[in-house]
């Protein structure tokens, strides 16, 4: 069954390039990103996994553990990681699950048979410290993902989990936020000491509260 926002991310144990991973235990009290790619030794996937390795310090800064997955063997993962390092200039520095029996892929509905019945699509799940799914994205095999966008969403998720704000279109860390409609103007004055501007009664902007 499809995984929806707010669902508990299914737990599992699986082999990875960094040894066995007990998923919930591995995430601990932090955030997580689980993402699938269709196949090892394919061009778009090679660029994606290299990019995530380069961005690892950005995920670390946000207390996010990244886990990748495909239905290939551990042996293939290990051989392919040499190609990733050689061609992308970045060494794999996060676990890549070897899901040959498709246990995790099926648990997370990552195989979409009308797209391809043997390979995973490009799924992304962002998981919060409460182990609930906060974001799902699905890309087709032919389109490499924009991991800067995934970091941007994580910034928004982490901010909105702490303050009564939402983030507007194309928002980036540091820009003004929207005060959620459930907060009255009187309460907004208390909660947002930097002030706010009301364009409409339901459209109120305030400087990012944690900056
Ligand atoms: C790729 O990573 O380049 C790729 C993988 C599967 C299908 C199409 C492209």
Task: Provide structural commentary.
Helices cover 31% and strands 22% of the residues. The strands form three sheets. The protein has a five-stranded mixed beta sheet, covered by helices on one side. The protein has a four-stranded antiparallel beta sheet with strand order 8-9-11-10, with helices on one face. Strands 1-2 form a two-stranded antiparallel ribbon. The longest helix has 19 residues, at 43-61. It is elongated. A hairpin with a 2-residue loop joins strand 10 and strand 11. The chain is built from six helices and eleven strands. The mean pLDDT is 98. It is an alpha+beta fold. The structure holds benzoic acid. Benzoic acid binds at residues 38-39, 42-45, 141-142.
Radius of gyration: 19 Å
Assembly type of the chains comes to single chain
Average pLDDT taken over every residue: 98
Count the beta strands: 11
Number of helices: 6
Shape: elongated
Uncertain runs are none
Heterogens = benzoic acid
What's the N-to-C terminus distance? 40 Å
Largest sheet: 5 strands, mixed
Write down the secondary-structure element order: EEHEHEHEHEEHEEHEE
Q: Given the helix and strand composition, which structural class is it?
A: alpha+beta
Arrangement of strands in the largest sheet: 5-4-3-6-7
Beta-strand proportion = 15-25%
Helix-residue proportion: 25-40%
């Amino acid at each position: 069954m499809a995984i929806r926002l707010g669902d508990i991310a299914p737990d599992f144990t699986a082999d990875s390039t960094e040894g066995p991973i007990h998923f919930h235990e591995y995430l601990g009290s932090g955030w997580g990103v689980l993402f699938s790619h269709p196949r090892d030794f394919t061009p778009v996937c090679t660029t994606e996994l290299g990019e995530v390795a380069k961005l690892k310090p950005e995920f670390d800064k946000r207390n996010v553990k990244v886990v990748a997955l495909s239905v290939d063997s551990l042996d293939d993962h290990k051989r392919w990681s040499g190609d990733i390092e050689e061609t992308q200039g970045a060494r794999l520095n996060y676990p890549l699950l070897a899901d040959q029996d498709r246990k995790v892929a099926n648990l997370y509905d990552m195989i979409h048979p009308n797209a391809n019945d043997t390979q995973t699509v490009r799924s992304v799940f962002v998981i919060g410290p409460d182990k609930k799914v906060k974001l799902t994205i699905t890309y087709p095999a032919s389109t490499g993902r924009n991991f800067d966008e995934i970091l941007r969403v994580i910034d928004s998720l982490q901010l909105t989990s702490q303050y009564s704000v939402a983030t507007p279109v194309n928002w980036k860390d540091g820009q003004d936020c929207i005060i959620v409609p459930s907060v009255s103007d009187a309460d907004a004055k208390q909660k947002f000491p930097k002030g706010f501007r009301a364009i409409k009664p339901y459209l109120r902007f305030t400087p990012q509260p944690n900056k």
